[in-house]
Amino acid sequence: MARVYNSRKRILVTGGAGFLGSHLIDRLLSDGHEVLCVDNLFTGTKRNIEHLHTNPRFEFLRHDVTPYLSLKPSTAPRAQNPWRLRNPRSSSAGASKMY
Ligand SMILES: NC(=O)c1ccc[n+]([C@@H]2O[C@H](COP(=O)([O-])OP(=O)(O)OC[C@H]3O[C@@H](n4cnc5c(N)ncnc54)[C@H](O)[C@@H]3O)[C@@H](O)[C@H]2O)c1
């Protein structure tokens, strides 16, 4: 008998507000995955991802990825707080929606 795997994943895309990253996110969401986009908007723009802000499987965090960044899936209900951010440069307890 064939094994059945749950192929839905939580995926972090750095630079997701850029040209390549935003198209990658579109593809991942259309494949049914959950996506956390981390971008400091240095060259990217919110325009590239604004069509995603109503998607419950999409989350945006404005953040520079060069310093230490630790993310853990939250134990809280997914709709309330899908991700928990642990970062010495931020006291924020969770990644927040951009809108
Ligand atoms: N319409 C088009 O054909 C089109 C449009 C734009 C770009 N391009 C091409 O695409 C290529 C560039 O695309 P890309 O996606 O690689 O570049 P990009 O600049 O669009 O994306 C990089 C992303 O990484 C982010 N970023 C950079 N440093 C970061 C950091 N320390 N922490 C967090 N985020 C950070 C930027 O803010 C940006 O959103 C080039 O070849 C360009 O010519 C084509």
Give the secondary structure arrangement, pairings included.
Blueprint: E1 10-14, H1 19-30, E2 34-39, E3 58-62, E4 70-73, E5 83-86
Parallel strand pairs: 1-2, 2-3
Antiparallel strand pairs: 4-5
The structure holds nicotinamide-adenine-dinucleotide.
Q: What would your notes on this structure say?
A:
The chain has 99 residues and is an alpha/beta fold. It is built from 1 helix and 5 strands, in the order βαββββ. The strands form 2 sheets. A 3-stranded parallel β-sheet has the order 1-2-3, with helices on one face. The chain has a two-stranded antiparallel sheet with strand order 4-5. Helix 1 links the parallel strand 1 and strand 2 (34-39). Residues 86-99 have low confidence and may be disordered. Nicotinamide-adenine-dinucleotide (NAD) binds at residues 14-15, 17-21, 38-44, 64-66.
